[in-house]
Amino acid sequence: MGRKWNNIKEKKASKDANTSRIYAKFGRVIYVAAKQGEPDPELNQSLKFVLERAKTYNVPKAIIDRAIDKAKGASDETYDELRYEGFGPNGSMIIVDALTNNVNRTAAEVRAAFNKNGGNMGVSGSVSYMFDATAVVGLEGKNVEEVLEILMEADVDVRDILEEEESVIVYGEPDQFHAIQEAFKNAGVTEFSVAELTMLAQSDVSLPEDGQAKFEKLIDTLEDLEDVQQVYHNVELG
């Protein structure tokens, strides 16, 4: 499983050079989380999760505050959460999560991205059964044994703990996300290198060179769509 997270992280790092796009997406998801509940993260677990994740992407405080202030105000802008599933080149599998105020527009744009880049849309459930919803929390400055001891003392049982480059990555059930973070915070950890609720493929596939080039173009096209928040896949990127 650790190889999968490194795979995602490396791709994420290359794409996130486009910070304005990332910040815009976070502004939207923070607004939605704050609008759907209390605009206080201590009273709104969804907002708290989004803000923890935003910190790992270095989203400026001004953008966070602006989104929360918008939610506190008179704005009646509403968004729908959508999930699309499909196939890329060579039978690769892709999940696309979107947040949109125009369902028809988003569906058309996602479908066009697949069709123009060697892929095709699937029906609901055609791909997601090969992925596991997973909480991923990473931290630096501790080894696997220290992390395991912290989690055991907090009585938090997780799926796996792996050392990856300079971080220790903890994989758990989605509903353990906050418990894992709280265990580390109580042990004095103040920052996380990773804080994600993600979809991890049960197994990765490799593509031939030409197939990988087509696949990366498809992923780039999907990620560049304004309404798309997350793209998950099962391809080992080279």
Automatic annotation (TrEMBL):
Q: Where in the cell is it found?
A: Cytoplasm
Do you know which Pfam families this protein is assigned to?
A: TACO1_YebC_N, Transcrip_reg
Which domain of life does the UniProt lineage start with?
Answer: Bacteria
Matching InterPro entries, A to Z? Integrase-like_N (IPR017856), TACO1_YebC-like_2nd/3rd_dom (IPR048300), TACO1_YebC_N (IPR049083), Transcrip_reg_TACO1-like (IPR002876), Transcrip_reg_TACO1-like_dom3 (IPR026564), Transcrip_reg_TACO1_YeeN (IPR026562), YebC-like (IPR029072)
TACO1/YebC-like second and third domain location, by residue?
79-235
Q: Which UniProt keywords apply?
A: Cytoplasm, DNA-binding, Transcription, Transcription regulation
What does the record list as GO biological process?
A: regulation of DNA-templated transcription
Coiled coil regions in record: none
Q: Which GO terms describe its cellular component?
A: cytosol
Q: Which residues form the TACO1/YebC-like N-terminal domain?
A: 3-73
* Record GO terms (molecular function): DNA binding
Please tell me whether the keyword Cell membrane is annotated for this protein. no
- Gene3D superfamilies reported in the protein's UniProt record: 1.10.10.200, 3.30.70.980
Q: Which NCBIfam families match?
A: PRK00110.1, PRK12378.1, YebC/PmpR family DNA-binding transcriptional regulator
User: Which protein family is it in?
Assistant: Belongs to the TACO1 family. YeeN subfamily.
Q: What's the name of the protein?
A: Probable transcriptional regulatory protein G4D63_07155
